[in-house]
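Hi U.,

Before I forget, here's the chain from the pilot set. I'm dumping it here mostly so it's searchable later in email.
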Amino acid sequence: MYNEPEVDVYEDILDQETDMAPAVKQFPKTDMYYRIKSRAMENYICSGDVLALTAYPQGQERIVPGDPYVIDTNTNGLVTRLLYNHPDGFLARSHNPERYPDFVITR
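Structure:
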């Protein structure tokens, strides 16, 4: 479900397709846990890995170019990509660009 466009992840956060886990003391500021289902970031982040996520309030994003992020986009749904600055927003790049091409996320 979360790889579909126009899905608001936070609105549907309790949906059964989102893998939630109990709080983990090593990650006290975690908002949710997400199980990776695609192979876009393999071998860096693999299908089946579980990520501890923290949401940034809109307008307060702290993007470090080249770092991996899980982004809820309007056009590509929830994606895990490396982000880079781009004149129109951010360039989203996977570790497997031949299968998962780059795209731009507008601000």
